[in-house]
């Protein structure tokens, strides 16, 4: 008797399990369809600045443009927005078979208010273009954006993360990221003269002078080089390189070349003495020198960014080159048309 009841019970349970699986499949299909049939686009617009560059202590304001191409009744429960500051650290290359380790630290999270005018709680999104304003103030102690073209250098990114919360629980939320560039308003500094000198094992000497050790990004600085070659050895070239130094936790140093140039009239120089005054342009995208404590729930990192000019005399032979280092401070100045509020 027990064996006779066993088959109907198994068959009945199988039917029940089959119905449950079908229900779960249909539910998952409904959720996926609702997520992929998104007839909308979302962008951020900054009409006041006409770009996404903002200064510490200043006001960030703009609009979220939501284009609804779906004629059905699209409803939102609310709009959440946050300003996120993220530090992306690229690890050292261990070997060719393993990729570089990339870690991300969210060191700054700040709520941003978005104002759908005339709405309370759930609201319907009309067909077509809808715009909602947002406005907030950047902190004065934020580090500047640190974006290099080198994918193996660490960087600092800022973006506004927007979540459009759907009313229906089975519909996935819409999300958008709007990147912004943060520039740090540098305090005024007193200019100082910086100089360095050295000689190689053959007695050839070089002396370099930086009359002012600070420069505003987008401008240029001048420097003077004296090369003393009593033995009239052939000088290959003298180069000048503007280098950004990223120092993490006072241990790891990452160097990034901003500018490099060969000094005029130094190639294959065979004279006894060479003297010249030169200039070097600083990219307007260079962030100001800074130090900052990057803190999150999982990590704490001390990041310092500074700059120096490397003057190098390239000479024939082994260990004969002469390297001079001139520290320089790069600052940022706010354009007069972009008044701070």
Automatic annotation (TrEMBL):
GO BP: protein transport
InterPro entries noted in UniProt: Arrestin-like_C, Arrestin-like_N, Arrestin_C-like, Arrestin_domain-protein, Ig_E-set
UniProt source species: Adineta steineri
Gene Ontology cellular component annotations, sorted alphabetically: cytoplasm
Arrestin C-terminal-like domain sequence ranges: 200-335
Protein name: Arrestin C-terminal-like domain-containing protein
Family: Belongs to the arrestin family.
Transmembrane segments: none
